[in-house]
């Protein structure tokens, strides 16, 4: 490419060339236009899906071998920003090796309902956790000279009718829940691209949404990269370019380029808007070119498999670990015979279906890894069930029960098969297959020392599992090395430290969006508002099977000495964590913030910080976390702005959202919020302005709380406080006119502005 800056290079191009830069050459690459090189974008996110032959966005045709790291559902459970950054970096190295310039991820949509078919590709029900992990992923990836594509922007929380349906979300949940992680990643990691989603937001397609793509993304958050469409998300390219879309993918054979040129010539599309869009794709090509020119770290499949295994082990949540006899069931004791049961022990379920489907370099088989890790342990196995309905169910179960009863411990692999959840459709329920639960009941009867290992992309109803089994490990989806990682955790080579990123409800009927999912007639009402995930269960005091943030360890931790201080950056919290058990381990320390007596509707508590600390037995360490001031803000719908409310904030330091260990309070100075008064402001609002009582009192008698309540037995001042001042014209019997009020309001507004600027 020439040395021109993108803006002047764009200016030097013809309109046809500018338009050509804004749509793909084919499925995965952009067009070369003059000196602007073509670049390659591909899926993502948990591995590189580089197709060299037939191409598709559904994960049907094959792709080059690449490491399948834990998908976001698993990776998120690590709550480990550093680890996620390392995985991002490794993905960058593989992208470079496979000539990929932009990897399509991460997905940061919020898991609004456990039935969403694509939840396996997203991190959490919580925007703070999603934002911090995804920021680190993008920073890791982009440190290698490969760009990210933050997706799917925005409010794409269901697969049902995803190309048409409108997510109807009120401003506060939209800002505080659904856009918050996007904002954090854009502001902190500057992803090269943002991918707009298929769906509509409050009636307008994301690809045509000027408010979303330009006013919010660029003007408010300062995004200066390329907005790319999800594959096939553009209905009308001209409207999309006007809204702020730069790149339509895949290509449309040049048809939409011609429409764009025609629109500019007809004066219905501003030429400057097209020129700016082209400049942004030129800047992206320049970044890609610079990335390619850097020395690429070699892609070592063995090293990446080892990283995938280490990462996966950090993603396994120990949900339950009761004692059978004197000792907890886990970790397994080498030498005690094992019965390994379940189809997933030999044919592991380790990634999701659809566009993110990776062709792994190799796959660890859990049964083999268990045998490899403990060669002196006698290990038997049985399938127990099939996921495709073939085989004699009773005979399979009987065989498994026999094997389990004859061993010292049973490890039962349960979960969902690939065909039961995927991109492109939602689940209708959150149940494990009935035959798996029946198998488990029979196995536990024959072998009380039973461990369940779960593989699944979306949340499952686990109450029946938790009732039956004394020990449960949740692997979600762990990527190609999950089998080895599970063996590491089962035998205690790795002490589990992962935490749930989603609540496990007692039943689907308890979930926040139960009545509004997946919507009807092309609309999804986000009726639960801010109350997504734990925010819902906490506010309604609903019992859950496992709370958000839950996860056990083979050791134990104590929290002491919480100290808080508030400053310009936010709230700094310091707490001492001690490993009180007998094994080294990592504790995920969670910081929830509550605002008692808030003037706005708020969740009971919200996660605003987390940190991991690894401690030897008996070791103590001080953990310091800053809860950033912007994260304390709520979206004020009157000011259309983030506002930090002043007053007392409570910080709860916790091992899960329902296991608060220590808490303390701190005073925070609020943002000044001066809303202009109007004649429709209430008397109470107007009288709160300095000098208002005197000015109005000179025209008409103002109510005096004590005096009037003596006379009438009611608090007149309180009653009158809710009357819009405009009504005084009729209530005051001619003592005051609308013109008088207009003048008074203007005077009060001027005085308030002057005093707030002083
Ligand atoms: C998915 C995207 C993906 C794209 C390309 C779409 O169907 O929604 O996440 O990146 O296809 O495969």
List the helices and strands and how they pair.
Blueprint: H1 6-12, H2 15-20, E1 41-43, E2 65-66, H3 72-75, H4 81-97, E3 102-104, H5 127-142, E4 147-153, E5 166-168, H6 171-178, H7 180-189, E6 193-196, E7 200-201, E8 204-205, H8 210-220, E9 226-229, H9 237-243, H10 255-266, H11 271-293, H12 301-313, E10 317-321, E11 323-324, E12 327-328, E13 338-341, E14 359-360, H13 366-373, E15 379-382, H14 393-406, E16 409-415, H15 434-446, E17 450-455, H16 463-468, E18 471-474, H17 482-490, E19 504-505, E20 523-525, H18 534-539, E21 544-546, E22 557-567, E23 570-579, E24 585-594, E25 606-615, E26 620-628, H19 629-632, E27 634-636, E28 641-643, E29 647-656, E30 659-668, H20 683-687, H21 692-699, H22 705-712, H23 716-721, H24 728-731, H25 738-757
Parallel strand pairs: 1-3, 2-14, 3-4, 4-6, 5-7, 5-20, 6-9, 13-15, 13-16, 16-17, 17-18
Antiparallel strand pairs: 7-8, 10-18, 11-12, 19-21, 22-23, 23-26, 24-25, 24-29, 27-28, 29-30
